Amino acid sequence: MNYKKIDKKDIEVINEIIIDKDRIFIGENINEDYSHDELGNVKELPDIVIQPLNTYEISKIMKYANENFIPVTPRGSGTGLVGAAVPIKGGILLDLSKMNKILELDEENLTLTVEPGVLLMEITKYVEERELFYPPDPGEKTATIGGNINTNAGGMRAVKYGVTRDYVRGLEVVLANGEVLQLGGKVVKNSSGYSLKDMIIGSEGTLAIITKATLKLLPLPKKAISLLVPFEELEDAIDTVPFIIKSKSIPTAIEFMQKQAILDSEEFLGKKFPDNSSEAYLLLTFDGNSKEEVEKAYEKVAEICLKYGALDVYISDTEERQESIWTARGSFLEAIKASTTEMDEVDVVVPRNKVAEFVKFTHTMEKKHDIRIKSFGHAGDGNLHIYILKDNLEEDQWNSKLHKVMEDMYSKAKELKGQVSGEHGIGYAKKGYLKQSLSNDAMALMEGIKKVFDTNNILNPGKVCQ
């Protein structure tokens, strides 16, 4: 595609649409942060950055961009890990962070309508102050809800409550040609034709730009308790998970971690973890509406863990204890980043009973390729986060080793009937692996859907299936 380079005439038109000139950045005024996301190694600056305030402005910009073959990349907080928000074709970058209003709380229908730039932590605080609950709990709390929807973010509570897709009732979106669509709504059930709403969720800004979202809420559980369960070996810990799931005492979260991740976290935070003496741990949380309900659930699971090899079961039944454990768990990624010069990640998801096998496989990769690899993840839903670390490798060595490790890991995930991404998406960095994992027919369908939504291929081009 031969895209138009932004020129003086384009800037004049954009200035007519965006009245406040302090919301337009050109050339040297563009912050370097806009050239990358948290992945870091995919970089490209846009020609112009625009911070729209409403659907009308986005609609006008998209209509003009479509008519003039100018690429447009939407962006939230830039916390992604696959280069999805990087404007690899230049053009316009739409920074949606100023569209950050909570528009409506409908307590009768238990919905919250928000703009895409509202942060996940702001939604959580707002609804919990009103004794309501938005269950999706991705690790990056400073991510925007628009970004969460665009990647169908999962998080630690997916075991019991599901992922972002399960809590999006309705969307307002702007298409590549500037048309505005209302998809879904406040209804609980909907079998009215193809679910265009669900097609937008997880599309990483390649099909449409989300300008409003109506989210499903639940009553806030009144009690939560966490268990920290040490095991001698990771395989023993992971092998216990299917028995926990079958017990029907479903935890809110089931996380796995290894000793080294805990030690890294302790060093990063400067705080001791409640226990770091064992090689592997399960971290579980239970919630409910009474202490008795929660105790009944966790006591049954504690018995199962001890039956299948747990060394002990530590109960964290105060806010202080729970915060200590979950703060450490939440710092794993930052601790890993702080320990190396650069990294890349594999966000595979495999069947739950294959998690231990995959993690053991990553250990063989460390030896085979002579490179440091860290891992942790969601044992309850099979989503693993594997981080390959550059350390002091020369650039050519790093690129060579990284490519070989990735090839091996994605091949193993496919062998185990897994998928390329559990929650971080495909973006730019992982699209080659997506193509290897899916059939030609599946890829052709995705490419066809993209063409229907975006005939001129201006909306976040070069991502996902391209």
Automatic annotation (TrEMBL):
Record protein name field: FAD-binding protein
Keywords: Flavoprotein, Oxidoreductase
Pfam families, per the entry: FAD-oxidase_C, FAD_binding_4
InterPro entries: FAD-bd_oxidored_4_C (IPR004113), FAD-bd_PCMH (IPR016166), FAD-linked_OxidoTrans_Type4 (IPR051914), Oxid_FAD_bind_N (IPR006094)
UniProt key word Oxidoreductase: yes
Top-rank taxon, per record: Bacteria
Annotated FAD-binding PCMH-type domain residues: 42-220
Keyword Chaperone attached: no
PANTHER family (UniProt xref): GLYCOLATE OXIDASE SUBUNIT GLCD
